[in-house]
Amino acid sequence: MSMTDPIADMLTRIRNATQAGHRRVVIPASNQKRAMAQLLKEQGYIDRFEEFEEDAQGSLRLFLKYYARDGRSVGVIEGIRRVSRPGRRIFAGKENIPKVCGGYGISILSTNQGILTGHQCRMRGIGGEVLCEVW
Fold this sequence. Notes:
This protein is α+β, with helices and mostly antiparallel strands. The chain contains three helices and ten strands.
């Protein structure tokens, strides 16, 4: 069965796993999801990710990060939100790339130079489609 919005599915799996306190989450692989997982790793939102072949498509296993607050374990990813959807694409020029939580979070954009964070896009002076926000 084909999926309408695989990026939203990935974000929902991460959100649900974080809220349930799971240490890892498995998602179907794609080049775009692989690039997004790499950005989340580089920005410190996940510990690591690994790819494994279980069928023709393959899967990604993301290892989530947690920290202790008031004696309980809290996920590093406090929130994750899909911005651009198949029914309503949201594009941002280089002048109006959104800042998430006053700069504490990141926005992930799809550009002609690949999947980049909002900060990287501002540094390079390019815009693109705003895929999601993470804080």
